[in-house]
From TrEMBL:
Sequence ranges assigned to domain Saccharopine dehydrogenase NADP binding in this UniProt record: 10-154
Protein name (database record): Saccharopine dehydrogenase NADP binding domain-containing protein
PANTHER family for the chain: CARBOXYNORSPERMIDINE SYNTHASE (PTHR43796:SF2)
One Pfam family in the UniProt entry: Sacchrp_dh_NADP
Gene3D superfamilies given in the database record: NAD(P)-binding Rossmann-like Domain (3.40.50.720)
InterPro entries: NAD(P)-bd_dom_sf (IPR036291), Sacchrp_dh_NADP-bd (IPR005097)
Length: 405
């Protein structure tokens, strides 16, 4: 059977940012081919951001670095270009979208805390597929409620939270929900999830704004099948990521999983999420900042993100470029005995930002090959853990499972 080639235009909002840069570089790799449909895809990638020069310079670097298939010609190509676009100017974004007419928009411009759905709505109304890397609990958990009916009407795939949470965290739970594998459960009752990047990992200002937005403020967790309030960046705990030599401190953070997982995983009675910074001076600094908020001295740390980012850069040469994610799951095995399984996802040599960027790469390729159902939904069950690890095989990233007592 002969193969055919389709052209697929992708607008990546924030395409030269910390995460946008990673996923854009991956989408430039060729070929994009589906064995199911015997159809290949040429990606025409448009890098969008407020700084036109940055967008164009990055596009130029991508085009110059395109791989040559050992001197052989190939029907598969990828090209990149840069444009200026400001998502906070709704009229400008609407005009840009109608002029470009992309097949897919990938929205990486955080922080998503406090954003409305105008980018997704505009995409859906114009028949453009949509993905975002949102980590805001409210934004992701309410996404389907606000947009599913409209997405179905316009025959559009729209998925929110295409990142570490809830995308990767749900793929791990799904994997462990298979009874036939060594690490499978019949029921998962409790999950403790932690993320700790290396100090030398790149950090954008928008990410800092996001994590500072709930510092010292009440956020929900699930305990004994009930929502309880904890305080952002408190609940300090020490963890050992398997594969890293030193322990890390982590504290409570706000994520979409808290609202979504009890609905998708009915046996789940407890879910807690923590994140941490490699250097203790930063982790304990955040703890102190949370108490200043509780005392009413500082109400909004997010506005201090530019200053705090600059201060953090003074300590860049301390710590490492290694980090990871850990999930400890407790439940019942096939003999109805209690079982504990630990999952660790470890990134070395600065490849940590590739982890939250990769789910969007996987789903963009699936959308290009018409492999996803239309509708607006959170990123739960959209890709498997096996698909994730296959997409990460070229990076210094590994995973492991271990059974506890």
């Amino acid at each position: 059977m002969s193969s055919s080639v389709n052209k697929f235009k992708i607008l990546i909002l924030g395409g030269y940012g910390v995460f946008g840069k990673r996923l854009t570089s991956e989408l430039m790799k060729i070929p994009h081919f589906s064995n199911k449909t015997n159809v290949g895809t040429n990606f025409d990638i448009i890098i969008g951001g407020r700084n036109l020069q940055n967008a164009q310079e990055f596009a130029h670097r991508l085009n110059a670095a395109k791989p040559i298939n050992n001197g052989h010609s190939s029907p598969f190509t990828a090209s990149a270009s840069g444009i200026s676009v400001d998502i906070h100017n709704e009229q400008h974004f609407k005009k840009t979208l109608r002029e470009l007419q992309p097949n897919l928009v990938i929205h990486t411009c955080g922080p998503f805390q406090g954003q409305n759905y105008h980018v997704a709505e505009e995409c859906i109304e114009n028949g453009v597929h949509y993905l975002d890397l949102a980590d805001s609990r409210e934004f992701v958990s309410q996404f389907s409620k606000h947009l599913n009916e409209k997405a179905l009407k316009h025959n559009v795939v729209a998925i929110s939270g295409v990142s570490t949470v809830p995308g990767i965290s749900s793929s791990v739970i799904d994997y462990c929900s298979r009874e036939h594998n060594e690490f499978g459960f019949t029921e998962i009752h409790k999950v403790e999830c932690s993320v700790s990047p290396g100090n030398r990992a790149p950090r954008g200002e928008s990410t800092m704004r996001a994590v500072l937005s709930y510092c010292g403020k009440p956020i929900p967790m699930v305990e004994n099948n009930t929502k309880i309030n904890v305080i952002g960046w408190q609940g300090l705990k020490q963890i050992q990521l398997k594969g890293l030599s030193s322990t890390r401190y982590v504290s409570y953070c706000d994520v979409p999983d808290i609202d979504l997982f009890p609905e998708y995983y009915p046996h789940l009675k407890e879910y807690k999420f923590r994140a941490g910074l490699e250097l203790g001076i930063f982790q304990f600094g955040l703890l102190g900042m949370s108490y200043l908020t509780r005392m009413g001295i500082v109400n909004d740390w997010a506005s201090k993100a530019p200053l705090l980012k600059k201060i953090s850069e003074w300590f860049y040469n301390m710590g490492t470029d290694s980090g990871g994610m850990q999930m400890i799951m407790t439940g019942k095995d096939r003999q109805h005995n209690e079982k504990i399984v630990q999952f660790d996802l470890i990134a070395l040599k600065g490849d940590g930002p590739q982890i939250p960027s990769t789910p969007a790469v996987i789903l963009a390729r699936k959308i290009a090959q018409n492999e996803l159902k239309v509708g607006a939904q959170p990123c739960i069950g959209q890709f498997t853990l096996d698909e994730l690890m296959a997409a990460l095989k070229e990076f210094n990233i590994s995973h492991s499972f271990s059974v506890g007592k």
